Structures are given as structure tokens and as C-alpha cells.
Amino acid sequence: MFLTPWEEYVLNKDLPRMQYLCQCADRMIAEFVYNYNYSAPIPKIYIDASDSFYPCSAPDGKIILPHGFFQWLENLVESLPDQITPEIKKKNAGLMMMFWVVAHEYSHLARSHFELKKVRPDLYDACEYDADMCATEGLFRHTQHILDSRKSGVTTINNKIYLLVSVFFYLRPLIDRDKLEYEKHHKPFHIRLWWILEKLAWIDNFDPVTAQPTEAFVSEIKILMDALYSAEKAYIKHNQIENSLFIDLFVRFADTVKPYADEISKKWQEAAPFVKQFQLIKIST
Q1: What radius of gyration do the chain's Cα atoms show?
Q2: Is residue 96 in a domain?
Q3: Is residue 208 assigned to a domain?
Q4: CA-CA 20 to 30 A from 187: which of 11, 44, 197, 254?
Q5: What's the whole-model pTM score?
Q6: What's the pLDDT tens digit per position in 78-127?
Q7: Which residue in 141, 164, 158, 149 sits closest to 87, CA to CA?
Q8: Overall number of domains in the chain
Q9: Which range marks the domain in which residue 214 is found?
Q10: Please, what is the angle between helix 16-36 and helix 67-78, to 10°?
């Protein structure tokens, strides 16, 4: 694998769209480091010239984005319905997809997941779960800051829908393309979406004293579930798919998710002390 810093890669090949996406991602990472006081060094984004469309991070602090990922993203955005939801146009969804992918990979680095995997490889699922949760909250805060600074008028719940639906339209085609390859590395698609959905509903909707959800949490769960259901209907209509594998699973989220939720909760309880320990080591050094 031959890796090139993104600045060098885009200038040599005259790729203005890729340059713009990488510049935005760099700014987002810098904000993550500032907001969350992460002790990990700010990683560099490198481009792999291959046709792969699976980004990754590396133990030495790199975030690796294959050229094929950008091609996949461009083709994916072009294939989306023109108006994903009343507030989300497809041209904006591509940037949100890029943000979420980079935030996920950065979270693996910032949260010491590579160190954890060395000592407890059986907790790999917990690392993926943690990366999704950190990426989701961090990206929500990042986009909300941008929206507020621009006085856009976009409400908090609409920003949450924006993020959830964008992630849906990024992950959903991967299942159609190669479900087996996807599930080698991640939990089933609808389980992962539920975790992201629930995380978004928790943000700013829990009582800090009792650590219990507020009434707004319950109402936002329903709103976000409706958005996900609508996104799947739009996806299968746009792609002329007769039978959806996920409509029924989305409707029965509570039944289908519980076994996975119990499993990941147990694994995260085991993983969390290791993550905290590695974070403290980084801070002290």
C-alpha cells in the first residue's frame, strides 16, 4: 500500500473536490481535539491510490482514505434521491458522510483502541461501538456549532435527523454491494443504526442528576425512527428494490436489538477501564 499525504495527492492530480473534503475533515479533527481534550496527536490523512472503498486508521496515527472511497462517495451521492428529506439535499449529505467516516476512524486513534486490541482482542466489538458513539456525538456537536454560527435556523432535532439519514445512506449501499464483507468488521446494519439513533436521542436529553432520560428522549426516539423508516422507503423506491430486508427490522427494533445491546453493554463494561488506563498513560507521557 503506497500512501501519500492528502495535500500532495490532490495537488499532483488536480482534485479540487477531494481537496475540499480533506480540508473540511482536517478542521473537524482539530475541533474534536480541542473540544474533547484528547491526548492523542492530531492524525494526518493519507490517500491510498487503490480502488478500495473501505477507509481505515493505522496504529501509527494515520487515517487512510482510499481513492476508491472518494469515487464511491461521489457515485453514491449522485445516485441519491434529489431531496433526501425536506431539509437534506444530496450535495450536503456527501460532506456529512465524509465527516462521519473520518470521525469514526479518528475515534479509534483518540480512544486507544489499537492498544486495547493488543491486550484484549476479544473486545473488538466494543471498540467499534465506542468509535460509532464518539463519532456520532462529536459530529453532532461539530455540525451544530457550524449551523449556530451561521444562524441557519436548523433545529437540534433536524440536525440529528440530518446526521442519522446521511449515515444511513452511506452504510445502506454497502450492504447491497457486499453484505458478507461488511459484517466481517461490523455488527449487522440495523443494529449499528439503532445505536447511532439512540445516541443522538440521548444528546442533551438526560437528567444529569439522575442520569435518566427526559421526556424529550422518548419523543426524539420516535421522530428519528420515523426518519429512518422513511429513508429506507425512499432508498428502495429510488433503487427499484421490491422487498426490503430492513423495513420489518426497523419496525421491530426493540425485539431485534436487545440481545446485541446486552452483549455490547457487557463488553463495553470490560473495555472501558482499559480505554481509561491507556488515555491516562498518553496524558502522562
Answers
A1: 19
A2: yes
A3: yes
A4: 44
A5: 0.90
A6: 777 665 555 556 667 788 889 999 999 999 998 899 999 999 999 988 99
A7: 158
A8: 1
A9: 83-284
A10: 100
